[in-house]
Amino acid sequence: MRRRIAMAVVVAVVAALALAGVGTLALSRAAARASTADELRRQSAALAEVLTVATRANLEDPSDAQAVLSRGTLRRLAGALDGRDVAVVLTTPRGRDLGTFPTGVRLTAADRKTLAGGGTVSGSDGRRLLWAVSGQPLRRSTVAVAVTAGPPPLLGGAAGWFVLSSLIVVAVAAAAALRLGGRLARPVHDATDVAERIAAGDLTARLPDPPAGDRDEPAVLARSLNAMAASLERSRGLERQFLLSVSHDLRTPLTNIRGYAEAVEDGAAGPADGARVIQTEAARLQRLVDDLLDLARLEARTFSLHPVAADLTQVVTGAAESFRAELEGAGLVLDVRGSAPAPGAVDVDRLAQVVGNLLANARRFARSAVVVTADPEPGGLLVQVTNDGPAIAAEDLPHVFERLYRAKEQPERSESGSGLGLAIVRDLVGAMGGEVGVLSPATGGTTFWFRVPAAPPPPVPPTHGSTTPAT
Q1: CATH level 2 (architecture), domain 206-302
Q2: C-alpha angle 287/290/293, rounded to 5°?
Q3: Maximum average pLDDT range among 124-128, 195-199, 302-306
Q4: Are 402 and 245 in contact (CB under 8 A)?
Q5: Distance from first CA to last CA of the chain, Å, rounded?
């Protein structure tokens, strides 16, 4: 990457210098040609005037004009004009040229008319030669002085300096590009190294934290990579915790089933007692397996709902009432509040499962009472399940709907569920198009709430609920 950046910078500098050089040469050539053309016009006009004045003073017979003009004058003029080619042509009244214009000078009839009137014409042969011709009337004849010159040198003596300065600029640009490329590539190399370590299983690998106010791309990349590594590390910890918890939840009822089966076989326990315990523990295993299957289907996006027309309030209150005996048997008071109907279409079994999971969670934490409220809202229903148990720590609130997350505050009751109930609540409510959250003030008590729409949502992947408070 460093070499590519350096090469790109050098190529850009060389291209810029090339464009600047071509433009400079073109402008310099045009300006030099224009300046040379103006200079030739001035020189030819001045020479024509000087020669005409000198010729008039010595000329007695116009037929001798060419002889007067050729008496060493041209040699002296050429030397005075830095070696430029000078030619003098006398045009007689009959249009005969006494003398020869330099090669490349082409005069039209209009040009000759301009010269006869004392004017100046100029031009080029289109390649290398620049010329100017000035005329002066001499009695009935015309004296024409032609001055020619080659193309001016491009940049003159500055061409070498231009090349030298360009090479110096390219060398400086290459050095700066290598240094800049190294600085730009270093964060990418560091991020690559950390990413490779993470891919190899080292989830503790991190990049140095950039300054808080740094918002450039390397800083954003470093923060994103560190956040990803932290999330992966936490997910691995939760996965291990998940496996340990599920293994424990499976082992406990299996141990009880095996123990009572052996006790019945040995005669240490009666068949009725053994069958009752085995049935209870088998039901626990069944609930755990069902929870695992539901969670797997929800996460694999293979879960489907079967909505039917129903009164949402009645479904919620009915599901809550079915838990009354169980809660009262645990010494808790259940208060169900909901009378206003909320017609809609919902999967009745899954909505009842959500309410049941929240009540099972409340049973583990409540001290004396659990309150369930169902309040119709425009387009749906708001359900709240409140228990008077201890408050949930602020650092635990964002994670309570994660599967098998263990809060610092453990339930006072000994009963334990599968540890998947709240995660299933989150995904089921999301699949129904609703949202879920939790409120737990520091003074104590916790309220789990969820909203479900009256109409079933289109089949989209379930979304995780928020932790914004209910209103």
Answers
A1: Orthogonal Bundle (1.10)
A2: 150
A3: 195-199
A4: no
A5: 54
Which sequence spans correspond to the domains of the chain? 2-149, 206-302, 306-453
What are the angstrom distances between the C-alpha of 205 and each of 184, 185, 197, 223, 227? 21, 19, 7, 13, 11
Residues 6 or more apart whose Cβ sits within 8 Å of residue 267: none
Q: Which residues contact 25 (CB under 8 A, 6 or more apart)?
A: 154, 155
**Range 306-453 has CATH code 3.90.1720.10:** no
Whether the CA torsion 265, 268, 271, 275 is positive or negative: it is negative
d(CA 90, CA 63): 10
Residue 226: pLDDT band (50, 70, 90) is confident
C-alpha–C-alpha distance, residues 343 and 417, integer Å: 32
Rg (CA), the chain: 51
3-class secondary structure, 344: strand
Overall CATH class of domain 2-149: alpha beta
Write out the two tokens for 339: 């009378």
> Burial letters for 138-151: b for 16+ Cβ neighbours within 10 Å, e otherwise?
beebbbbbbbbbee
Instruction: Quick: pLDDT tens for 391-412.
Output: 888 888 888 887 666 555 554 4
Q: Mean pLDDT over residues 464-471, rounded?
A: 43
Burial class from Cβ neighbours inside 10 Å (0-12, 13-18, 19+) for residue 286 reads exposed
Q: Give 356-367 pLDDT, tens digit per residue.
A: 889 988 998 899
